[in-house]
């Protein structure tokens, strides 16, 4: 990996951003578009809001990208706080107004202080405005103020105010389908994160507690070239494996317990999301192995089903079928497969979706979640997680005792291709492979 310039990763990404802006302009047409980067917290590492980053490859707090298509000369504008000497001393260098145009290829850059005046003039020329709300409160305020000033009198006269749109549903379908640069980064993020998980599985020994597992996986991410963690690490032992979003990570782990690690590295802004479950002493108990194999089979079935044209819902149904049949075979559920599925009796033990879109965000925008077009069918170049699981609470009634307090999840990241799917996260996770890895 080479980082040729302190302000960006590579030229290809800057060219990709230009294509993304052009593509977005095709859907927003002759509307004004405002995309804020958001503001920085004190001493917290700053990550620009993903919609802003996707369109600029810049991470500058307080910046706002403006697509101003009715402006003949310089339609792609950036408003940003100018880089001061004080900031350079306290926080280090970052792109300034000059670099926004000379390096990042935007048409024009202005101090953030000019944004209010620009909006006052520009809002008179547009009947449609898209923006991303709640990222930059001052931008929300300026926009509302200007909208009220202009629209209120017109609304009173005509009953029709100018339209103000949330940009997110318009950009979400575009971000769902990854471009070549995004796929390349997601591949690398997936590969390094999978290698880090393997390192942890190979090195964890009985006696480790959850804090040490937590530290081990995050160290491994950095050792393998990751830039950051993509989301708070889940390092659970014993019955904590049955808690979906367990993040306390501070308990001892019994010698015969399972360990569940749900963690991923971020690489050049792009996320991976992997879960591995393994026995801390290197050998599954019979009950652990039985549950594990059901989850493993469910994931393999979903990999086979994942291809363009298949519905997202079908992946969920595929997983449920294998998980439910497996739990019937093990005596965890009773009845027929049809009954169990129709009455959703598997839900106390498998209560989440089979996966989610993955990209700049760990949960990348999915159009169905934003009120836009329902994601009915899979398409090439969607990257998503596949994460079936079974979680048997310690107090589950009517379940054979040996399964109580066992949770298993296996999560990998896939790229939908033309024919099927490519697994981005080296899925060497059969019970035999896990045991072999632990030696
Ligand atoms: Mn996930």
Would you write up a description of this structure?
With 439 residues, this protein is α+β, with helices and mostly antiparallel strands. The chain has two domains: 11-175, Creatinase/prolidase N-terminal domain (Creatine Amidinohydrolase, Chain A, domain 1, 3-Layer(aba) Sandwich), CATH 3.40.350.10; 177-438, Creatinase/methionine aminopeptidase superfamily (Creatine Amidinohydrolase, Alpha-Beta Complex), CATH 3.90.230.10. 38% of the residues lie in helices and 16% in strands. The protein has 13 helices and 17 strands. It has helices spanning 11-28, 50-56, 85-91, 97-102, 115-122, 137-158, 168-176, 180-203, 210-223, 286-305, 312-329, 337-342, 431-438; strands at 32-36, 64-67, 76-80, 108-111, 128-131, 163-166, 228-229, 234-237, 258-263, 265-267, 270-271, 274-279, 383-386, 389-392, 406-409, 412-416, 421-423. The protein has a six-stranded mixed β-sheet with strand order 4-3-2-1-5-6. The chain has a three-stranded antiparallel β-sheet with strand order 7-10-11. β5, α6 (137-158) and β6 form a beta-alpha-beta unit. The protein is elongated and about 70 Å long. The chain starts with 10 loop residues before the first helix and ends with a helix. Manganese (II) ion binds next to loops.
């Amino acid at each position: 990996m080479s980082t040729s310039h302190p302000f960006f990763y590579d030229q290809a990404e800057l060219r990709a951003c230009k294509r993304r802006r052009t593509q977005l302009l095709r859907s927003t047409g002759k509307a004004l578009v405002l995309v804020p980067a958001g503001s920085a917290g004190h001493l917290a590492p700053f990550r620009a809001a993903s919609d802003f980053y996707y369109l600029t490859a810049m991470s500058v707090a307080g910046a706002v990208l403006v697509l101003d298509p009715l402006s003949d000369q310089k339609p792609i504008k950036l408003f940003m706080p100018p880089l001061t000497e004080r900031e350079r001393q306290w926080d280090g260098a970052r792109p300034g107004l000059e670099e926004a145009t000379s390096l990042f290829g935007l048409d024009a850059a202005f101090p953030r202080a000019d944004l209010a005046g620009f909006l006052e003039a520009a809002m008179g020329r547009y009947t449609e405005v898209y923006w991303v709300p709640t990222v930059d409160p001052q931008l929300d305020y300026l926009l509302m103020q200007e909208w009220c000033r202009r629209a209120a009198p017109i609304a009173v006269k005509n009953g029709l105010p100018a339209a103000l749109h949330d940009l997110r549903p318009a950009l979400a379908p575009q971000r769902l389908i990854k471009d070549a640069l995004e796929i390349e980064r997601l591949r690398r993020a997936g590969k390094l994160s999978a290698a880090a998980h393997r390192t942890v599985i190979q090195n964890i020994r009985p006696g480790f507690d959850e804090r040490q597992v937590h530290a081990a996986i995050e160290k491994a991410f950095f050792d393998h070239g990751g830039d950051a963690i993509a989301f708070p690490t889940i390092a659970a032992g014993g019955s904590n494996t049955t808690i979906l979003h367990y993040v306390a990570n501070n308990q001892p782990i019994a010698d015969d317990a399972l360990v569940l690690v749900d963690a991923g590295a971020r690489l050049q802004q792009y996320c991976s999301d992997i879960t591995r479950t393994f026995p801390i002493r290197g050998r599954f108990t019979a009950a652990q192995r039985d549950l594990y194999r059901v989850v493993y089979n469910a994931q393999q079935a979903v990999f086979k089903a994942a291809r363009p044209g298949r519905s997202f819902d079908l992946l969920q149904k595929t997983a449920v079928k294998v998980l439910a049949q497996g739990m019937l075979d093990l005596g965890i559920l009773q009845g027929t497969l049809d009954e169990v599925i129709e009455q959703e009796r598997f839900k106390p033990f498998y209560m989440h979706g089979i996966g989610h879109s993955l990209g700049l965000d760990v949960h990348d925008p999915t159009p169905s979640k934003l009120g836009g077009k329902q994601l009915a069918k899979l398409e090439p170049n969607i990257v998503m997680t596949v994460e079936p699981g079974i979680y048997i609470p310690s107090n589950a009634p009517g379940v054979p005792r040996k399964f109580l307090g066992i949770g298993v999840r296996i999560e990998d990241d896939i790229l939908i291709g033309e024919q099927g799917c490519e697994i981005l996260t080296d899925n060497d996770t059969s019970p035999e492979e896990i045991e072999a890895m632990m030696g």
